[in-house]
Amino acid sequence: MAESVKVVVDAMGGDYAPVEPVKGAVQAVKERQDIQVILTGDKTAIEKELGKYQDIPKDRIQIVHTSEVIETAEPPVMAIRKKKDSSIVVGLNMVKKQEADAFVSSGSTGAVLVGGQVLVGRSKGVERPPLAPLIPTKKGVSLLIDCGANVDARPSHLVQFAKMGAIYMEHVVGVENPRVAIVNNGAEEEKGNALVKETFPLLKACKSINFIGSIEARDIPAGFADVVVCEAFVGNVILKLYEGVGATLIEKVKEGMMSSFRSKIGALLVKPALKATLKTFDASEHGGAPLLGLKGLVVKTHGSAVAVEIKNAIFQCVQFKQQRINEKIAERINDQEQSTSEPA
Amino acid sequence: MAESVKVVVDAMGGDYAPVEPVKGAVQAVKERQDIQVILTGDKTAIEKELGKYQDIPKDRIQIVHTSEVIETAEPPVMAIRKKKDSSIVVGLNMVKKQEADAFVSSGSTGAVLVGGQVLVGRSKGVERPPLAPLIPTKKGVSLLIDCGANVDARPSHLVQFAKMGAIYMEHVVGVENPRVAIVNNGAEEEKGNALVKETFPLLKACKSINFIGSIEARDIPAGFADVVVCEAFVGNVILKLYEGVGATLIEKVKEGMMSSFRSKIGALLVKPALKATLKTFDASEHGGAPLLGLKGLVVKTHGSAVAVEIKNAIFQCVQFKQQRINEKIAERINDQEQSTSEPA
């Protein structure tokens, strides 16, 4: 049997805590033998949830009681510092002390990002750990790297993002020789802002990645690249506009369908098929965004994540550990120091 | 009768030239008495197109023959310099010499942007002329300013964009006291990259605009602001992702509708209503993007613009001239120099 992986799940994080995180954890340990889950949070509440399920492998699901909860609205740095007995801080500290391999949370994005960097710490050589959600495309998914909280990246950061993203897509998501592109305001090589212009030749010089050049935002949803590299401010705009355009367009579709008697009848017939197809293009469905380049793995699931997404995030952690992603990143990041110091 | 406005239309620009530009020009002069159109391009080709229409008011539609065409793929600066007898250069020069009030083209965006700045020239006090397309929202349209070719803007540029955008939305589009917001990676005031953080207090200090703070990309399609201010690289990403997500989602909707016999029947019933509603959310339908802050007006219509969009762009020019937008911009830009030199 493959090496067993220990994942801490924040039972207090997200809109549906503790119900959904606990349910996801139970599903994960039931489906795979090589997983141990530690739930951090209020013991009484978690035990009550666990009581709903039968045949739980009790040796592989445990509770670590915590007395505090970090709210979404709290300033992250302060929250991490003050709430030492919160489900997030305790969970991240377990990863730091190597008592666990990974931490999954649907709680405050800011607190998870700050805590991941401050408590778990960066891998040797990693300048800045990126947050890298999977976004839906026509063909499947792409990794959008970086969507984190640290904006105004330097070219060397983007080069590291490209390398980490390529490793993730290849070994966790299973895309062979992933196509890496940098977000730009045109496809031509002379296009770009100062950051992109400086980064482009560095990426071109990277032998370890399959760099295909610039990608215009229009071509991201079409799936022209597997790893979409950008600075976090731009990444944030892309991720949130995906959501925003999607939501507004779906509303328009519904409105259109309800606009006449004829179309209402049609809507009834179309609805089930449409729902299934649109689900494949829902950014939130792809759940876990890893915070890469840390000494352990930290995965942020969105605030409204339900059990299946928590479960998938846990499975991502297993894949990450078993595929030795951190070791692979450490290797390639060292190799990076050569190429970024000699721009092509 | 209102003051007559002279608009040059590039008859050779865009995917459907000269058919659609000529058709749009004919429709414009037929619908309104206060418009004169000058078509630049190959005289024989234009005359052939004009020959298709009856009852043209010949005194208000004229041809200026040009022998060259700037292709979309040509490097813009070189094209503007070399092709002095192209429909774009001749048209822009007419605006420069005040032989016309405005220029409309569906041709090379780069050439129109470069030519607008180099040939027509900036209004006094304008540091950088922004390209500002109207984008569809749930509620109507918003002005996305800047989507031009000059990236890496400074805070003072963004303040000018906000002022020019507000004037345009108020007096050309007709939105009273337009809400102005800056694109940010979070709604809180402390969020942002270096540029946004520096610009935010300057906008807050502007008494002449209705500044409502930051806007997250998610809320742009929902129509939370009338004037969406951003640096051109980010604007380009927003504009093109709008298109890209829209196109992919519509494909998914079609795919969903064709996935079963039941849904195919439903699709037939739903189609006409759906088509009409989705048309209101098609970024390309809103046609003309003005290049603001020049001595005359330059409007770029998208490459696949058809007659109705050319006509609407011509009408925009009339509104622009009759509302004395350039004079209003000049006034407010002078007023700007106080507020940007004293950040709040």
From TrEMBL, chains A, B:
Alphabetized UniProt keyword annotations: Acyltransferase, Cytoplasm, Lipid biosynthesis, Lipid metabolism, Phospholipid biosynthesis, Phospholipid metabolism, Transferase
Localization: Cytoplasm
Protein EC: 2.3.1.274
Assembly description: Homodimer. Probably interacts with PlsY.
GO cellular component, one term: cytoplasm
Record family assignment: Belongs to the PlsX family.
HAMAP family: PlsX
Catalytic activity of the protein: a fatty acyl-[ACP] + phosphate = an acyl phosphate + holo-[ACP]
Function: Catalyzes the reversible formation of acyl-phosphate (acyl-PO(4)) from acyl-[acyl-carrier-protein] (acyl-ACP). This enzyme utilizes acyl-ACP as fatty acyl donor, but not acyl-CoA.
GO molecular function annotations of the record: phosphate:acyl-[acyl carrier protein] acyltransferase activity
Record GO biological process: fatty acid biosynthetic process; phospholipid biosynthetic process
SUPFAM superfamilies membership: Isocitrate/Isopropylmalate dehydrogenase-like (SSF53659)
Species this chain originates from: Candidatus Blautia faecavium
Pathway annotation: Lipid metabolism; phospholipid metabolism
Pfam families: FA_synthesis
Name of the protein this chain belongs to: Phosphate acyltransferase
EC category name: transferase
Keyword Lipid biosynthesis: yes
